[in-house]
Amino acid sequence: MPGETASQPTAAQSTAIPLGLHHVVLACIGRLLFAEEGVEPLGAEQAYLFNHYQAVRPLGDPAQVLEQCLARPAAADEALLRLAGALRLSRLEILALTLALMVEEEPMTGRVLAHLQAPVGGSRPTLGLLEAALAPVAEGTWLVGDLLGGPAVASGALQILDAQAPLPERSLRMPLGLALAMRGKPLAWPGVSLATTEQTLHLPPTLQQQMDQQARALRSDAQGLLVIRSASTEEARAVAVALAARLHRTPLFIDEDGDMAGLGAACLVLEALPVFVVAGDVATKTIPSLPAYSGPRLALCGPDTPVSTAQGSVVQWSLSTPSRSERADLWQAYLGEEALARQLARAHIHSAGRIAELSRLALREAQRQGHGRPSVKDVRQAAWAAEAGQLASLAQPVNADIPDEALVLTKAVDEELQQLVARCRVREDLDRSLGVTLRARYQSGVRGLLVGPSGTGKTLAAGWLATRLGLPLYRVDLAAVVSKYIGETEKNLANL
Is the pLDDT assigned to residue 381 strictly greater than 60? Predict the structure, then answer.
């Protein structure tokens, strides 16, 4: 291990070295060279092995020393033994994991293995070397067979390389991300990120209460999958972080193309909650199970993406829109303008994540324009900026302000448009006077159909409506939406 010299220690110095699993496994390898009396080490690699062999030999045979290390583990072995207990690993698997971990963190260990396994093997341990070295603790079993059929390999904590080589020449490795997790280092895993910073998104009280309920349900359903649906990825991630905190876990965000091998074992070591981030699509997404991990899982996706799983139950949770008073509190928290917050909460029904996004963009727009305080116009401009990149290929913005005097209408049409504006502004409260049955089916969205020959002002009227409501307006080109390829039209509609 780091800090040890290659010089030959005295007996007193050998017994003073704090023993860990790495001493045991290197002593087992050293036994192959120095079991006979009088054999002297040649070179730095053999001296390194000899030191560890000499440190263990006075304490008994390797099997006895291994039991002592398991009974009183060194601090460096605690994470590995915690994983071993969760996976119910055998003594052989524990030593194989220890050696695979040492190769990743201690350069001299790789040099020793390359020296012993030349010319067939490399710097990682081969199955043939383990078979010979760990014989003292194998108790007459076929070590290679036990490893290949054991939970260490099944979970991905140990990976078998060189699939075309004979079994004795195949080498073992530990995934780099798992090795780093064992030592408490920052996670390095393709397509995976560990949330270590506190989320800055404000979550309304209603959503907090729902999270308490979902956390209680996840505790009772240990293998359940909770699908969190939201149009705001930021909001969904913030909810996942808050849920993980309620479960006393750290959220581990996993992309669809992330490397899953050994990830379940890493979740056990890190005490993490796996959170799968699902890209928006019309095709059904299957959330995989993680070998060795049997706890709850989360999946973050949009409102319409179908999600399934091959293991456990699936619970769907669509994040609700905050109430008007909660929206006002959110706008106030981000913008610091009470009157503006009340106006925006009354005019717009946005989610907590959308309010946070628009507030940041509105503040930046106000600074760009040299305003001391953000205004409704800044928020509207923020709404344009937030969607521009996502809809460019499917819809085109129509961002002209249409004043009242620009729209010349008959009295009847003008009354209908005024009623449509009023309908949009009170859409959140219209269900209060409805019966129970109608209230359960009520949707606050508004659809308007403008009919007339070309040139009669339909687009102009739509622009006037958008100006009155303070909402961005987009023109959808059906030619860009409809596709001759199967599934593409549905995908474009889902993106819109």
Answer: yes
| pLDDT tens digits along 411-456 | 999 999 999 998 888 887 776 777 666 666 667 788 899 998 988 8
User: Is the pLDDT score of 50 beyond 70?
Assistant: yes
- In the three-class reduction of DSSP (H, G, I as helix; E, B as strand; rest coil), residue 447 is classed as coil
| Peptide bond just before 119 cis, omega within 30 deg | yes
Residue in this structure with the two tokens 């928006």, named with its chain if needed: 280
What's the number of CA atoms in the CB half-sphere (13 Å) around residue 66? Answer: 21
| DSSP SS3 for 426 | coil
Residue 326 neighbours by CB under 8 Å, 6+ apart: 204, 205, 206
Q: Measured between alpha carbons, how far is 329 from 341 in angstroms, rounded to an integer?
A: 7
**CA 134, 136, 137 angle in degrees (round to 5)?**
75
Whether 38 has a pLDDT exceeding 70, the answer reads: yes
Task: Spell out the residues 6+ positions from residue 304 whose beta carbon is closer than 8 angstroms to its own.
Answer: 280, 282, 494
Residue whose C-alpha is closest to residue 474's, from 360, 397, 404: 397
SS3 300: strand
Torsion from C-alpha of 302, 307, 313, 319, nearest 10 degrees: 10
Residue-by-residue DSSP string for 237-276: HHHHHHHHHHTT-EEEEEETT---TTHHHHHHHHTEEEEE
- As beta bridge partners, residue 396 has 475
And the tokens for 314? Answer: 């699936």
Mean pLDDT over each residue of the chain, to the nearest integer: 85
- 3-state SS of the chain: helix, strand, coil percent to 5? 55, 10, 35
Best CA proximity match to 171, nearest among 179, 163, 183: 163
Residue 250's DSSP bridge partners are 272
Q: Which residues sit opposite 225 in a β-bridge?
A: 297, 314
**Class of residue 455 by CB neighbours under 10 A (exposed 0-12, middle 13-18, buried 19+):** exposed
pTM, rounded to two decimals: 0.80
Distance CA 328, CA 286 (A): 38
Decide: 429 and 437 in contact? Cβ < 8 Å.
no
Q: What is the pLDDT of residue 14?
A: 39
Query: d(Cα 126, Cα 117) in Å, to the nearest integer?
Result: 8
Most confident of 238-242, 360-364, 398-402, 420-424: 238-242
| Cβ neighbours for 130, distance < 8 A, ≥ 6 positions apart | 92, 96, 99, 143, 144, 147, 172
460: three-class secondary structure by DSSP: helix
